[in-house]
Amino acid sequence: MSNITDQQLRKASHRLRILPYLVFGFLIFSINSMGSFNYFLRGYSVLLECQAAVVIIYFLIRYFKSKN
Question: How many CB atoms lie under 10 A from the CB of residue 27?
Fold first, then answer.
């Protein structure tokens, strides 16, 4: 048996909740910094990419929770 309690596992999983948002944020930043877009086009693309990332994360979390 392991010495890790259930409460410690919950704390670790709670800390990892921000990980998908950080990954998508890094991807959005890197995609937008590589291109030489117009100022308004860059702002519009950031808004669209952030909204898409939130929706993707929502469905991924929903998918993985249904497997448990």
Answer: 12
Residue 54 included in any domain: yes
Closest CA to 64 of 20, 2, 12, 24: 20
Mean pLDDT of each 10-residue bin along the chain, 68 residues long: 62 69 83 80 85 87 79
8 assigned to some structural domain: no
How many folded domains does the chain comprise? 1
DSSP structure string for 3-62: S--HHHHHHHHHHGGGHHHHHHHHHHHHHHHHS---HHHHHHHHHHHHHHHHHHHHHHHH
Give the pair of three-digit tokens for residue 21: 């948002």
As a whole number of angstroms, the distance between CA 21 and CA 50 comes to: 9
